[in-house]
Amino acid sequence: MIVVRILGIDPGLNVTGYGVIQWLAGRAELVEAGTIQTEKKQFLGQRISTIYRSISEILEEFMPEVLAMEALYSHYDHPRTAIVMGHARGAILLAAAQQEIPCQGYMPTRIKKSVTGNGGASKEQVQRAVQHALALKTAPTPYDVSDALAAALCHGNALCKGLKKGTRYL
């Protein structure tokens, strides 16, 4: 019986969502979830440092075998979003690398399809699917948390099927 602890991350410069799940024989159990928030008025370096320190603490406390998050993408109309997200992702990847934790990236459509069956699912649909998959009494909020848990669940599903197309090694 394979037991894997997976840390899912929804990276953001203002709010980074995280969710730790225990994956056991195709079933998931919530361990911990929450957000890391930075102050908008702080300098960029301070905000990145907050994300890095917080992720490092989460990794030390929960000792996941793998970290899963959305692969970096850029939409033509909003290139700044990818740049801002890249800052947060860099801090997260550094924290994971220093603790020798492998990272898997998934395209947003793959994460949504994995948990809802629809690659174009809304935030609300993802939230409800995560609630159902983890047998939670209430939906995980905010969306940063449900998106992070969805990334972790996507990786768990990928483990069951073998990693396939749509997976990016970060």
Overall description:
With 170 residues, the chain is an alpha/beta fold. The chain has one domain: Nucleotidyltransferase, domain 5 (2-Layer Sandwich), CATH 3.30.420. It has five helices and six strands; from the N terminus they run E-E-E-H-E-H-E-H-H-H-E. It has helices at 44-62, 79-98, 108-116, 123-133, 143-161; strands at 3-10, 15-24, 27-37, 66-70, 103-106, 167-169. The protein has a six-stranded mixed beta sheet. Helix 3 packs across helix 5 and helix 4 crosses helix 5 (143-161). The two termini are 27 Å apart.
Strand order of the largest sheet: 3-2-1-4-5-6
The CATH superfamily is identified as: Ribonuclease H-like superfamily/Ribonuclease H
The count of strands amounts to 6
Please name the CATH architecture: 2-Layer Sandwich
Indicate the proportion of strand residues: 15-25%
**Rg, Cα atoms, Å:** 15 Å
